[in-house]
Predict the structure.
Amino acid sequence: MLIVNRYKVLVALSVVGMSGCSSLGVEPWERDLLAKKEMALTSAPIDASLDDHIYFSKEATSGGRSFGGGGCGCN
Amino acid sequence: MQLKAKKTNLKAMLTTASCALLGSTANVSAQETWQFDTAIMHYAEVDRVSATEAIIAGTKTFNNDEVLSLKLTIDALTGASPNGATTQPTPQTFTRPSGNGQYNVKAGDTPLDDTFHDTRVQLTGQWTQPLLKDYTVSVGGNFSKEYDYMSASLNGNVARDFNKKNTTLSAGMAYAYDVIEPEGGIPKPLSEMVVGDSNDPNFNDDFNKTRIGSDESKSTIDLLFGVTQVINRQMIVQLNYSYSTVSGYMTDPFKIISSVNNNGESQAYLYENRPDERTKHAFFGQTKYHFDSGILDASYRYMTDDWQIDSHTFDFRYLIPFTNGHFIEPHFRMYTQSAAEFYQPFIAQDEAKPNFVSADYRIGELDTYTVGLKYGMPLGDGNNLSFRLEYYHQTPKDNGTQAIGVLKEVELYEQVDAIIAQVTYSF
């Protein structure tokens, strides 16, 4: 019974979550600003890959935005 | 006019070269053209390492929204890197990692090994295409080779759009395999560096006793789950969770740690040793907001791992466009990490040797920040030129270890200053 209730709660939360999401967002004709190149999440991929290489070799953290594994024996 | 003709020729030449690589003919239609991004970046630390990196990246978008990206990176590294030993009030002598000769460090100076020089070539390819309705799939690979290091990786990613493409869920996986083959071989963990007369006939035998092989490898599996949500006409948000597990050789064969007496004086240098497993969890959040006056790009990353390293990264960029198409973009980044549980700036000679130990400040307690500015301008025909200049500062910290004896008189945690300069040209 408890499991069934938990399941119902999950479904209810998911529905609320999805409908929450659907109230967010824009219509296709409202994408004028979002469609700009500068509004892409990674708008300067070359800068991002150079930065990743620097910070990968100088700090103990990598990845997060994208995959962080492997790379170089950089010092 | 002549310049324009040259540019067109360069693009045509690269297009032909790319097509030749792909085994197709250079019959470029109006919609299916290559877009190239080229960059040269110079990274220079004061009195330490400097690196120059050149990138040429080509992206071709096909009529059916398939995208092919290829990237070639070449970099050259020279200069001096801390070897891990503590500063001393007296001069110090170290054997080079290769076993060929020695180098001296002045009293009061952070010990730096100045033998670093390497050239790296890296090739990256990625294919992305729509699949069924609402799905996008992407597969890619990477190969990188330098004198003593090789890395190869494969990745795959699938994304699904919901809710009029306002919500995107994605999941990806990557596998990387790295091999390190340092000149002079792999040092025996925690063995003592042989420091003596390298011309002595016995020196090579003694040095070889501190070696356990010629190469080591590690493999990395990364999983990445993300959700991207359009909030409104001005704002988009991304949240990622990534899991990374590394198995294999993660010790730095070039790093040592000082074994000191009760008065803090160096008695020996031991080769470091790190665990051969590491699992990391990272949470990454980013938003872009289109203000009337510009575009804000703000992100935060939290990373935690089973080496007890926790880190926080904050990154802010604000792009300010001008009416003539030029723009400036100030950048600020702040990073802080706690020390790995096996990090120690030195070992006390009379204490038992730990299983794992490293004095590499890059896995110690560390704060860094970066401030920079990018300036970009259009050059017509969709070509763009930009310049980036940044200042990077590192402040290593003591993770609570008390300095003893003579170590109180010297700088154990020297700060690092670096300049990053970059020119990018897209055509």
